[in-house]
Sequence to fold (118 residues):
Amino acid sequence: MSGGDAAGRLVRPFTLTGGRTRPDRSDFSLITTVSAVDPPPAWGVRTQPEHARILRLCEKPIAVAELAAHLDLPMSVVTIMLCDLLAADRITVHPPHPVSGTPDMDLLQKVRDGLGRL
Fold:
C-alpha cells in the first residue's frame, strides 16, 4: 500500500476488523462505558496492536464514542473490535443508566431562561 490516508494510517479500517462490517453483538451504543478487566485473564489470546491501544485507553472507564475519537477510527470499527475484546473477556461493558420517564420541568425552565440570556 502506498502512503497513508489523511489521518496517517497505513492500514484501512476494514482490515482491522478482518473484513467484518457488523458487530457480533448489540451491547455498544455511543454512551456505553467500557473498562479493561484487571488483571487480564491468564488464558487471554494475543491481541493485535489496535486491541492493545483500546485496552490502554480502557484502563479507566471510557465511553465508546470517546474511545473512537481517541483512536480516530469509525464507530463501527471500534464496536467490532470491542466485540472481540468482550468475547475474550478482556473488557467489561457498563450500559448507560436509564433516564426517568418524566422530565424535570423546573430544570428545563432554568436552562431555557439561561439560554435566553446568552
Remarks:
- The two ends are 51 Å apart (CA to CA).
- DSSP finds five helices and three strands in the chain.
